[in-house]
Amino acid sequence: MTDPDGRPIVAELGRPETPEETWARKDAARTARRQHQTAFNLVIALIASLAVVLVLVLVVVRPNTPVADRTVDYRQVAAQAQVSGVTLAAPALPDSYTANRADYADKGADGVSVWTVGLLTPDKQYIALRQGVSANASWVANQLDQKPSTGTTTIAGTKWTVYDRRDEGQDAGNDAYALVHTFGRSTIVLAGTADDSSFRTVATAVAEQFADQ
Asked: Which candidate, 171, 157, 166, 147, places its Cα nearest to that of 204?
């Protein structure tokens, strides 16, 4: 239906729209389209973000493989290292002890060469064996987060300096307990989360190895 001038009559108004009403109606329609498009774009962006997160999770996350599965023959690595003039600590331990790391770093930032073995105890606790060659007091302090010693203990005839931080709980990290002794040019730091029995086993084996030199 149109008016005498041929303009369509709007049913809701019962008359033709004024130019202002036409403009307002079209502007409202444009606004609605923009709002719809914005909402649609937000949904697409959200879906894309979730897809990215999913890909990252699939790429980064790995099965929770026990550390003990990454076994390293530390005694073989020590034998092959061929470090002149230095005996690398490779104590003979029970078969229930394994290692997940064994490496030698020649002259680090502090000028001290370091042999490191990561040992896993039968109950899956950790003891790091760090051997500093011609190490100084600063190197030892750095290995133990600058913490003071808490006493000494004698294990199989060898006197070790003790660094016991177990009362700090989780704040002590992986160095909750440590033993330190110097055999000639080699300063041995045993540090980890294991119990006293495991530390005694490792400390005894280390002392026996160096006693044979």
From this structure: 157
